[in-house]
What we know:
By secondary structure, this protein is mainly α. The chain has a domain at 52-110. It has helices spanning 12-33, 47-50, 53-82, 90-115. This is (raccoon dog) hypothetical protein. It holds the Pfam family Hmw_CFAP97.
Amino acid sequence: xxxxxxxxLLCGRDYLQHTWEKAYQDHRRKIQDAQPLVDTSAPLSFSHxxxxxxxxxxxxxxLAVIDRDNRLLLERLxxxxxxxxxxxxxxSHTQKRxxxxxxxxxxxxxxxxxxxxxxxxxxxxxxxxxxxx
Length: 133
């Protein structure tokens, strides 16, 4: 078979084929270089929408109550440990009160003795009665 020389200009069919291939190659290159148009990143998160300040405040108050109760229990336990588990009687409280009362009375007497002004007996003025009867 002999080779047929090709003309310098392409015939219609070959020219169309060439332009289609070129357009297809351009299309493939554009697809490779394309950047995504859809934003797939996570949305912005605002801290004031996620933090529940009311819940935090209530939790803080609850923890304060628990701490106070724990401190009271610790005081009670330390009192029990100091007294070797013996219950404190009312008598000790009343004895303290009576001692304080006695001391207070004695102190009040001493103070009242110091603070009394020296008074000279004054004669009360007598009303003159007229004898018009």
